């Protein structure tokens, strides 16, 4: 898995970027604009999955974990009014979550990289879910404390952690310190085995305020063992 990730994310990507004079994320956007149906979020998701499984690997949650097996099922069960995603990347999971939200509900999605955020914004708009998604640019540790006052968030029903793995644990602690979690709030964390989030797993499973469920899976678009962790806040 490490070798495959190194090849796809470092060596192959750098060579392709140099030859084509554009980023992988820009190539994903172009493929969506040329092949997906505007205003159809499922078409956008299928198109990204096709590109990432057949052309270039990318760190989306992917169709296996994203499909009704884990992410979709969790969002449908929680039926959130206010959701938070940490790690927008190209907007794949934002589109995936937003398409399932009921009327009047919304998703706040946080992305550190402004260039990637600009691409995600275009994909979200192309999918037609921009009315349900607010993209926030900046470090998660700076944005989380601003959610109540600046973005008028009372509490969060659902949080999807899919950003830097070493931020999973501190950001979970920060969400509690900022009183953004209520009884029944659900956290879902991706890639807890590969690349891995050991500090988060240690913290969440040994915290009596959370009830955890593990969902074994595979790394997106690869035959590599991975899993997602669901944690329900007990108050």
Automatic annotation (TrEMBL):
Write out the GO biological process terms: catecholamine catabolic process; developmental process; dopamine metabolic process; methylation
Record's protein name: catechol O-methyltransferase
Q: Which domain of life is it from?
A: Eukaryota
Organism source for this protein?
Geococcyx californianus
Organism lineage reads as: Eukaryota, Metazoa, Chordata, Craniata, Vertebrata
Query: Which of this chain's residues are annotated to bind Mg(2+)?
Result: 162, 190-191
Q: Give the UniProt keywords, A-Z.
A: Catecholamine metabolism, Magnesium, Metal-binding, Methyltransferase, Neurotransmitter degradation, S-adenosyl-L-methionine, Transferase
Q: Which cofactor does it need?
A: Mg(2+)
Q: Where does S-adenosyl-L-methionine bind?
A: 61, 93, 111, 138-141, 162
Residues annotated as binding substrate: 165, 191, 220
Give the E.C. number(s): 2.1.1.6
Indicate yes or no for the key word Chaperone. Answer: no
**InterPro entries (alphabetical):** Catechol_O-MeTrfase_euk, SAM-dependent_MTases_sf, SAM_O-MeTrfase
According to its record, what are the GO cellular component terms? axon; dendrite; membrane
Q: Which family does it belong to?
A: Belongs to the class I-like SAM-binding methyltransferase superfamily. Cation-dependent O-methyltransferase family.
Query: What remark does the entry make about the cofactor?
Result: Binds 1 Mg(2+) ion per subunit.
The enzyme's main class, written as a single word, is: transferase
| One example GO MF annotation | magnesium ion binding
Q: Does the keyword Cell membrane apply?
A: no
């Amino acid at each position: 898995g490490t070798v495959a990730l190194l090849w796809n994310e470092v060596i192959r990507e750098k060579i392709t970027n140099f030859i084509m004079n554009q980023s992988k994320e820009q190539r994903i956007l172009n493929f969506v604009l040329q092949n997906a149906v505007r205003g159809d979020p499922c078409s956008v998701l299928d198109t990204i999955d096709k590109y990432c499984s057949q052309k270039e690997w990318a760190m989306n949650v992917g169709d296996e974990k994203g499909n009704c097996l884990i992410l979709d099922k969790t969002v449908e069960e929680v039926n959130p009014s206010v959701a938070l995603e940490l790690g927008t990347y190209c907007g794949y999971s934002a589109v995936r979550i937003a398409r399932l939200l009921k009327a009047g509900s919304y998703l706040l999605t946080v992305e550190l990289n402004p260039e990637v955020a600009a691409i995600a914004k275009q994909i979200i708009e192309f999918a037609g879910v921009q009315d349900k998604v607010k993209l926030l640019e900046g470090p998660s540790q700076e944005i989380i404390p601003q959610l109540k006052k600046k973005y008028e968030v009372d509490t969060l029903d659902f949080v999807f952690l899919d950003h830097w793995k070493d931020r999973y644990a501190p950001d979970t602690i920060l969400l509690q310190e900022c009183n953004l979690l209520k009884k029944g709030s659900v956290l879902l964390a991706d890639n807890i085995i590969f690349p891995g989030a050991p500090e988060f797993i240690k913290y969440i499973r040994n915290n009596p305020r959370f009830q955890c469920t593990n969902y074994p899976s595979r790394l997106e678009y690869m035959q590599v063992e991975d899993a997602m962790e669901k944690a329900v806040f007990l108050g």
